[in-house]
């Protein structure tokens, strides 16, 4: 082999070696680029989307808070209303019970009044009056009245005095007035003192020094008599009792 052939052979070997090194460098570079993590690149459109998503999340959170607040307020409102309705219902039931009791009481009083009127009692200014047809002493007359839930009449005013004259026809009737405890200190059967009276002229007088400790009503007015005197009487009873 001449010298030219050797030179060409050497050149070919050198070129081949360079080609191999270049190919290996490219492969290493590609492998490095493949293994290197790629940093994501955000475009302007991606930024807008992110900001929109965050705004939507904030709005959704606010809506949830507002909704929860509204639910709580509504629950409190409903509870308060329910409590008020319960109290009002209880008050109405109590009123109904009271009205029912009052109605029953009025019915009972009406029935009692009708019964009394049927038995000869007379009604005047919220009281019932009974005038006897027989005669008894003052003590016995009072016992008769008390056995019937009443007492001898107490005359409080001029109108009642005139009423007594009418129902008695002007006849003598025992009234609930006596000074049997202290002479001259006249008291009604309920224990109250007599403040004003309708005594006839010259009465009371304890006629001829006799013990006249009980009062009778006459057409001319009141007079003191012996409590053993036999006379008719008038009982009085409140319709509210």
From TrEMBL:
Query: Which UniProt keywords are present, listed alphabetically?
Result: Coiled coil, Lectin, Membrane, Transmembrane, Transmembrane helix
Which species? Cyprinus carpio
Coiled-coil positions: 82-116
Q: What is this protein called?
A: CD209 antigen-like protein E
GO MF annotations, alphabetized = carbohydrate binding
Q: Which residues cross the membrane?
A: 55-79
InterPro entries (alphabetical)? C-type_lectin-like, C-type_lectin/snaclec_domain, C-type_lectin_CS, CD209-like_CTLD
**Family matches, as Pfam families:** Lectin_C
Annotated C-type lectin domain residues: 124-236
């Amino acid at each position: 082999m001449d010298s030219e052939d050797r030179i060409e052979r050497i050149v070919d070997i050198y070129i081949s070696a360079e080609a191999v090194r270049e190919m290996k460098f490219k492969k290493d570079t590609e492998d490095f680029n493949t293994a290197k993590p790629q940093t994501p690149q955000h475009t302007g459109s991606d930024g807008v989307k992110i900001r929109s998503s965050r705004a939507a999340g904030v709005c959704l959170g606010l809506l949830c808070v507002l909704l929860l607040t509204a639910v709580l307020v509504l629950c409190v409102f409903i509870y308060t209303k329910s409590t008020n309705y319960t109290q009002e219902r209880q008050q109405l039931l109590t009123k109904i019970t009271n009205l029912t009791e009052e109605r029953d009481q009025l019915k009972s009083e009406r029935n009692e009044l009708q019964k009394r009127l049927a038995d000869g009692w007379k009604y005047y200014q919220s009281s019932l009056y009974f005038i006897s047809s027989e005669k008894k002493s003052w003590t016995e007359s009072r016992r008769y009245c008390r056995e019937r839930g009443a007492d001898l009449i107490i005359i409080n005013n001029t109108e009642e005095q005139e009423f007594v004259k009418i129902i008695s026809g002007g006849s003598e009737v025992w009234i609930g007035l006596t000074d049997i405890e202290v002479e001259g200190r006249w008291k009604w059967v309920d224990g109250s003192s007599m403040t004003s009276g309708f005594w006839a002229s010259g009465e009371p007088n304890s006629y001829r020094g006799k013990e006249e400790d009980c009062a009778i009503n006459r057409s001319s007015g009141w007079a003191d008599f012996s409590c053993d005197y036999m006379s008719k009487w008038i009982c009085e009873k409140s319709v509210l009792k």
